Amino acid sequence: RGRLGFLFKDSIIYGGAAAISKAFSLITFPLLARHFSVLEYGVIDFFLVLASLLAILFIFGQDSAVARYFYEHEDTEDRRQIISQSLLFQLVGLAVFLPLLWWFADKISGLIIDANEAELFFKIVLLQLPSLLLINFSKNLLKWTFSRAKFLIMSLCFTVVQGLLLVLIVMVFDAGIEDVLLVSLFTSLIFGFLGLYFIRHWLTRPRDFNCLCEMLPFALPYGVICVIGAFSPTLERSLTAHFLGTEELGLYAAGAKIAMLMMLMTNAFQTAWGPFSLSLYKQNDAGHTYNLVLKLFSVCACILVILLSLIAQPLIHFLASERYAGAFAAVFPLGMGLAIQAISWITEIGIGISKRSYLSLYASTLALLATFAGIWLLAPVLDLLGVGLGVMLGYITKSGVSSWLAQRAYPLPWQ
Question: Which of 17, 40, 181, 414 is most buried, by CB atoms within 10 Å?
Fold first, then answer.
């Protein structure tokens, strides 16, 4: 009971802050959906998702590696070396590859989406990447060190400031797509520097790169996994635009926003589950705690999917108007897929404990192929519902394979 209470408390504090952050985008969703056409909203959503994908590409699993090895060391100086070497590695990678992406921005933007001023939008996304990297790194470190007040500032204030600026430019200045992306860039710059200030006492001059060399074999598979996971939403949108058109891309973006309500709960749990599960696994009765969490969370997740599906249609009409009514078809499969993925975060804990991160790579690769095949086969027949079912198929594949491999790598007494 004590452990479950601790997990619940951290889910409320850390996960709740992250959930409120994401929920704020639901508040701005009606504003943007009503101000822009369905096609324009689809373009905005595409480039915001692309920014997340590129940020995860440059982080490349270092957040997972630092989280795993941070708890391996008790000495503060060793922990500072782990943190500093990891951050330096990410910044060097950014310095090497960002100029290349900028140089070929016209060709890359033309390949990924057919939209007016796509090159300009892509360059704004590139300018945002250093700040997104610092925000992600500082938030993770504040979570691992249980710096709750600073974590709440980074999570909540970032979203509130960005949301208020969006309201201002849309209501007062009749904003375009470029203005929305510039607001995201400006907010990221402010909080990137703020996050760096909050974690300054954990940063030191690397004395060598032994910690980095130790972490890289663990981080590299997770880097590929995270990139695959972040690439999947971009793939979903690209295939939707290819098979169904840019208009349907806007509907899919709206359906994904409603399904985000499910993601709020699952991400709140994941934020607390990672540190909690890794700090507990050495205890003799850890398996008993894991079983209790699995049972309780599975029931809650499935009930929430049913409730979300029941209110999805009137919620879309209320938030985005009847122009987006077709988005309803994607809500259930996306919500159910997110629930299945969240449940597997518990059952695949053995991969992280055993440090055999490459096993997750197999599951993620198969999931991406399943998503691609599912959308390819079902979208031409079932339209937007087919896209949602293809995405859900990918989640099912990843969850089943990763859970099976985790049990082989580190057997746990699941009931």
Answer: 181
**Tokens linked to 106:** 């016209």
> What are the DSSP calls for 29-89, one per residue?
HHHHHHHS-HHHHHHHHHHHHHHHHHHHHHHTTHHHHHHHHHTT---HHHHHHHHHHHHHH
Instruction: State how far the Cα of 20 lies from the Cα of 133, in Å rounded to an integer.
Output: 20
Angle in degrees, 0-180, between the axes of helices 358-382 and 384-409, rounded to the nearest 10: 160
Residue 306 CA: distances (Å) to CA of 264, 331, 332, 372, 399: 15, 11, 8, 26, 20
Burial track 79-104 (b if 16+ CB lie within 10 A, e otherwise): bbbbbbbbbebbeebbeeebeebeee
Distance CA 265, CA 166 (A): 25
pLDDT score of 4 more than 70: no
Q: Is the pLDDT of residue 329 over 80?
A: yes
* Confidence band, pLDDT 50/70/90 cuts, at residue 97: confident
Q: State the DSSP string of 270-303.
A: HHHHHHHHHHHTTSTTHHHHHHHHHHHHHHHHHH
> What pLDDT, in 10s, does the model give residues 144-174?
777 777 887 887 788 788 888 888 888 878 7
